Give the backbone structure.
Amino acid sequence: MRWRPARCIFRRGAGVPDLRDYQQSGLRDVAAAIREGHRRIIMVAPTGAGKSVCIAAMVRSVRSALAIAHRQELIDQLYDHFTLPEPEGLGLEAGVLMAKDPREDRAKKLQVASIQTLVRRPPLDPPPQLIIIDEAHHATSEGYQKVLAHYPNAICIGPSATPFRTDGRGLGSAGFTKIVTVTTPDKLIASSHLVPPRVFGVDPPDLSGISKKAGDYDQVELAAAVIPAVGQVVRAWERHARVSAFSPGPQTLVFAVNVQHSKLLVEGFSARGTPAEHVDAETPKDERKAIFARLRSGETRIVSNVGIVTEGFDCPSVECCLMARPTMSLGLYLQMIGRALRPHPGKTHALVVDCAGNVQRHGWPTRDLSASYTLDGNVTPKGTRVPGCRRCPECFAVFDAAQPWPCPSCGFQPQVRQMRMLDKHLQTRELRRDEVRDPPTESEQFGYFAYLYGQAIMKKYALGWVSIRFRVRFGRHAPAEFWHKVKASRRASG
């Protein structure tokens, strides 16, 4: 397939908006990768970068294209975004391949398909020239690999905001050979295509005894640890959302551990007069749509969910992300916060209330991770403790616990007894970006590993000492490539 330059793919007035500069640059990088011989490419574009616009530009440059997703909500969203007229959509024509969907039309150039349907049906004839895998970190599954095997000559593009998997498995195992980064969250914030986050940290529950399963916390044990803190989560949201008789609070998405946890949170919010609803995988489709419609209209202020809105959910009016679910998954963490970062009229920032310790576990949510993207797998490093704080009962200002009273904002000076009570119950503070220590990069980890290896050789320690010290520092075993690399380096230096 001959891939034309990005500036030729996209023509003014052709039913698709003009590309932004970084989108043009990203498409040129994709085109260059294809000319180099890469057939499966991960295209990393954060929330709000306009992945679907880039996809539309690629679709216009080929004779046939297939877009694949794994959930009905994602398929419906893709179809609507592609086919709705401007400015609501991109004005393209598409058919849907999903069970007995009435939108099926094989004559259309673009087919939006369910992976479950494609696995059961025979290969498309003629085969698509271009395959788009929405949320490409799912492409390692057996179903995706079976479908891709039917089209060995197709160019496969995997757009994703988070090219990581919770289980640490690399996307190279799905056959992807190249990563192209379109832009970064900080650049999108600088150009007003995203809003900056304001992060408030709440002392998280003690997770020291929670076991791990499939690269994340065991959900049964995790739920038992977080459910006793439901009341604290509700109060933390009210405190930072500035809820009052005159303000019902921002439109908020709550991320819970399981159904029981989510429903308890909804009960807690409802009992205090805030309209809240719950959704999970068992919520009927029509009911789910109605709940999200009420959230968009403002009739419902809070929607608590379990694994439903972490991917593909688009509601720019959502102003607050309330994380009640601790996670070891960097990708899941970024997806949760990304739901609140889209710009909306009157929205100056996204409020992030972290009741799970995720920000300190994974680092600042909009930092540039492009240097650490890899096809070989990912690791979520250990984090640090949330620093203490004081909160003024008069003006609600939050400031460092190391700073003495009076309040630096309003000058309030509590009495000695009041001071003891306030210090006893103060649990939250706003986190600044320069206070959040970013997890160490792969190169920093390798540098420390090489230092340990050199110390072991010089002091004649067993090499197991290197493994132990590395694991204590970073919470994981040293990768095999670290051992190979340092041994090869020592051999080369004699």
Q: What stands out?
A: The first strand starts at residue 40 and ends at 44. Residues 442-459 form the longest helix (18 residues). Residues 64 and 109 are 5 Å apart (CA to CA). The mean pLDDT is 83.
